[in-house]
Amino acid sequence: MTQKPNNGRGSRDVDLGGRRAVAIIPAYNEADCIQRVIADLHGRAPWTDVLVVNDGSRDATSERAREAGARVIDLPVNLGIGGAVQTGYRYAWQEGYDLAFQFDGDGQHRASRLADLVGPILAGEADLVIGSRFLAGRGMTATGMRWVGIKILSAVISVALRRRVTDPTSGFRVAGRRAIQLFAREYPQDYPEPESLVLLHKQGLQVREVAATMRRRREGTSSIRPLHSVHYMSKVLLAVVMDLVKAPVRLEEETV
Amino acid sequence: MEGEARFFQWQHQVALVAAGAVLLGITLELIRKRRLREEYSVLWVVTAVAILVAGLYPVALEWVAKRLHLDPAILMTFLCVLFLMAILLHYSIVISKHSEREKGLAQEAALLRDELAKLREQVKELRKAPPEPKPKPPALRT
């Protein structure tokens, strides 16, 4: 790979070769953080458009995001993370974007790291690239039961995909055109991050990982709380096994 | 069946026929008033007819029970449970279908609203801009 080293602070010029990129930010009651997240993207990844999918927030998320200059799509009802992210993918597919990033609305992800993800897609090696917290062995790592849970899940997903995946629950990722098409059509509802990897694999699409550091998440906002880890993990594993036996989706060939 | 104790007394038969007829009547009435879609009524019509048949020809049920070496009462209970499970499964499928549709519609509504806002913006800008001179239509005859 020909990526220049990055200190993780400044913005970096990325040559997308004329391809258009959009960052999908699913947001539910994120009025406090959303402007900072959008400013981060505008400042450090100015080469990507920003789309906030407001998942029926009860606070001023939508207004704050518009003030910050993002394009905002307001869902009339709360669909949950899977439905919100899929709305973003439908938008990306309709608008003809070549790259669609997923980016958290709570400030966990770093806009300065977006450029690290695109390499394998531009090289045509992957349809989806995950920013993994565990590849570099530094930065934020999960602790306790959560770490065990992610390890087990990562083992199962790796076996299913026949390729090592260290961080299947990471929501820091980028999809290429084929993955955008698939996700616009079909996207898992319950545990979309790990489940979507199985879906991609079943459709014959390629998943790669690159190292990424993330900010420490604020207390209590993770969907994987330590006390619930065991319960969460058994449900995710069940969902993943179900995904493995589901019939594949039939997609139309894209006419260029 | 002569000499054996019959499972169904005539009172049972009357009760079953009445129950079947009432259920069939209610179902048909609901369909007539368009409060029940035909699609979802099939199971109910089938059940009502099954109860009617059981009431009119109890021998059939007794014959099946004998063949299966089951007490007719147990066979009836078993059939009831089976039927309820079928209804529940049917509803789970319907609910899944509807939630998938609802999700798609919500997404579509949100995307269309965005599209509408964008178009409104464009219309506003077009109104503000000075009108372009109309190109002259080409002469029809020369």
Describe this structure in words.
The complex is a heterodimer of chains A (256) and B (142). Chain A has 256 residues and is α/β, with parallel strands linked by helices. Chain A has one domain (21-245): Alpha-Beta Complex (Spore Coat Polysaccharide Biosynthesis Protein SpsA, Chain A), CATH 3.90.550. Chain A has nine helices and seven strands, in the order βαβαβαβααβαβααβα. In chain A, helix 2 links the parallel strand 2 (48-54) and strand 3. In chain A, helix 6 packs parallel to helix 8. Chain A starts with 20 loop residues before the first strand and ends in an 11-residue tail after the last helix. Chain B has one domain (10-127). Chain B has four helices and no strands. Chain B has helices at 10-32, 38-56, 58-67, 72-128. In chain B, helix 1 runs antiparallel to helix 2 and helix 2 (38-56) crosses helix 3. The longest helix of chain B is centred in the last third of the chain and has 57 residues, at 72-128. Chain B is rod-shaped, with a radius of gyration of 32 Å. The model of chain B has no long low-confidence stretch (mean pLDDT 86). Classes of the chains: A alpha/beta (256), B mainly alpha (142). Chains A and B meet through strand 3 and helix 3 of A and helix 4 of B.
List keywords for this structure.
heterodimer, A: 256 residues, alpha/beta, Spore Coat Polysaccharide Biosynthesis Protein SpsA, Chain A, 7-stranded mixed β-sheet, 9 helices, 7 strands, disordered N terminus, B: 142 residues, mainly alpha, 4 helices
Helix/strand layout:
The complex is a heterodimer of chains A (256) and B (142).
Chain A: E1 21-27, H1 34-44, E2 48-54, H2 61-67, E3 71-74, H3 80-94, E4 99-102, H4 114-117, H5 119-122, E5 128-132, H6 144-161, E6 173-175, H7 177-185, H8 192-202, E7 207-211, H9 229-245
Parallel strand pairs in A: 1-2, 1-4, 2-3, 5-7
Antiparallel strand pairs in A: 4-6, 5-6
Chain B: H1 10-32, H2 38-56, H3 58-67, H4 72-128
